[in-house]
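Quick sanity check, Aryl-alcohol dehydrogenase-like predicted oxidoreductase:
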Amino acid sequence: MRYRLLGRTGLRVSELFFGAMGFYEGGAGKEHRAMLDAYEGAGGNVIDTASAYGESESVLGELLAGRRERLVLATKYSISRDQTDPNAAGNHRKNLVHSLEQSLRRLRTDYVDLLWVHLWDRRTPLEETMRALDDAVRAGKVLYVGISDAPAWVVSRANTLAEWRGWTPFAGVQVPYSLLKRDVERELLPMAGELGLSVAAWGPLAGGVLSGKFSGGDGAEGPTRVDPGTLGERDHAVARAVREVAGEVGASPSQVAIAWTRARHPFVHPIVGARDGRQLADNLGAAEVVLAEEALSKLEAAAVFEVGFPGDFLAECEADPWVFGEGYRRLDAS
């Protein structure tokens, strides 16, 4: 597995992140330890969890003994710790302080490498969130910060505030991204590319749909968060296209689906999770899959997607010499 820099920092992070959301099931058992060993053995070094993921942090705290410093440990705060307490949720300073202290105790560490804001809180001023995050960095309890599930304008404004005021900016964003969910291509991915942010992509298999389990592929057994009855023709058509490409390139459908999320944008890091070691080994194989342009075109033709306004409109303007003149098409981008 190869490595990239996290955003505009010097931190080296692996191509694939490991999602430990499911580590609360059964405690820190042999299977969880074996999965962590397999991920680290493949060269992976980013472990992603959250305060809201049940016992995941506590399980990881036990499993990370003896290898904490070799891994980039990421967790999140925002989601309620106590639904009867209005201040036990949100992106404000009080919840950040208490959530972070709880996470550090559970993870059995003095600091986390990356703290994500779990989602945008409309009721907390961005200034408060960014200053509170910067204070956590200055206190040495957090090294880098990012934000998950937020509009592009929120991320842009937050980093502008950080730049102007000398605070720690977001180094990355976390978003849902797969062939079946391409919405982030409208604003969030272009923003990340322009601002130099890393993108952690959750749900690259669309809840298992792109593994083929609901469209005649293998792996239909086991629990799933997807109700097969809710899947439409587009879902099945895309899953079939993934299976076809997988057969052509000699990979599994899951590997092809994960590889696609990385193919167009080198700053995208899929978050891979797994039910067991066998499934994890298959998903990790996506790091070795390179999709040719023909394969990418076939996949994207099945996953019909329109960028919409303003993206499509601006692209049309750039192609029209009436707008920027004939010389525009000979202008090399810097």
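Posting the structure with no commentary besides this: Residues 148 and 214 are 28 Å apart (CA to CA).
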